[in-house]
Design goal:
The longest helix is centred in the last third of the chain and has 77 residues. Helix 4 links the parallel strand 2 and strand 3. The protein has seven helices and five strands, in the order H-H-E-H-E-H-E-H-E-E-H-H. With 294 residues, it is an alpha/beta fold. The mean pLDDT is 85. Helix 1 packs antiparallel against helix 7 and helix 3 crosses helix 4.
Length: 294
């Protein structure tokens, strides 16, 4: 049964409301992307300070020797994997993609592996991929809430006592909305220490490490871990909002198409009603023109 003009008009009103909601969500996603991008940019200067200071410490105590690296590996106590997903929907395959990536990456990691999931929906996807998170944390919905989350993750790493740590997350891509990344932050190896020691000290006077390089190194390493996990979280949320923005743009296009079809159907129905009214008027006129009984 064809729809009446009032039915079509009601549908057009509902679609218009949905259109306004999608546009509001697009604006919110754009705003969130801007805020978290600013948080990432603000980390760069502090990150440079920490890495430059790490370079000064390693120059003071000397580089990590291959023997020390082998000793760390021989006393390996397991691997911690922090997986950043999301608690929220309307992000396409965002959580499913990071879960599949995690499953693939874990295959090459030394046992035992402890997985910490950030995001309820990501945790569900991990379970579907055969990865069981030992703990699930909530995704921060604002920049100030990233710091408490990272502090909680670091506390979990201290309790677990693992000597290896990988941070898995999505970062914004060029050709796509996002791409998965596996960032190994523990243990420190010759590659990292070599990169830090190659950073030139800003100034002519050589730095002096107060309290000894080893003492300062512990604090700086924790700052480096904090920055790395903070950056991963901010990049993941930026990618999440980029994925949501892309989904809302597709929804916006589909709504425009649906609105155009509904308006076309409504105009046809209105024209049909007008034609029916004209036909009734003409039929009545013709009936009046016929000779009647006196």
């Amino acid at each position: 049964m064809s729809e009446t003009a009032s039915d079509l008009q009601r549908k057009i009103g509902h679609v218009h409301e949905l259109h306004e909601l999608v546009r509001a969500m697009k604006a919110l996603a754009l705003s969130s992307i801007s805020l978290f991008e600013q948080a990432i940019i603000s980390l760069e200067t502090y990150s440079q300070v920490v890495e430059t200071s790490l370079g000064a410490c390693f120059r003071d105590i000397g580089p990590i020797s291959p023997v020390f690296e082998q000793r760390i590996k021989s006393h390996h106590q397991g691997t911690s994997v922090i997986v950043f997903g999301t608690d929220h929907g309307l992000v396409g395959s965002f959580n499913r993609d990071i879960a599949k990536f995690t499953h693939e990456e874990i295959q090459s990691m030394a046992e035992p592996v402890q997985v910490i999931a950030v995001g309820e929906r990501a945790s569900i996807q991990l379970l579907e991929c055969g990865v069981v998170p030992e703990q699930t944390l909530k995704t921060p919905h604002s920049v100030p809430l990233i710091t408490p989350l990272v502090s909680q993750v670091l506390a979990e790493l201290d309790v677990s006592g693992t000597t290896a740590c990988h941070v898995l997350y999505h970062e914004p891509g060029f050709a796509t909305d996002y791409q998965p990344v596996n960032d190994q932050v523990l243990p420190f190896d010759y590659r990292l220490s070599g990169r830090w020691t190659s950073i030139p000290w800003p100034g002519q006077a050589l730095p002096e490490v107060l309290g000894g390089g080893t003492v300062a190194l512990r604090s700086l390493i924790r700052e480096f871990l904090f920055l790395t996990i903070y950056r991963a979280c901010a990049l993941s949320i930026t990618s999440e909002n980029a994925s949501r923005l892309s989904a809302m743009q597709r929804a916006d296009q589909n709504i425009d198409t649906l609105m155009s079809e509904l308006k076309s159907d409504y105009n046809r129905e209105r024209q049909r009603l007008i034609d029916d009214d004209l036909f009734d008027v003409l039929s009545g006129y013709e009936a009046l023109r016929k000779p009647g009984k006196n």
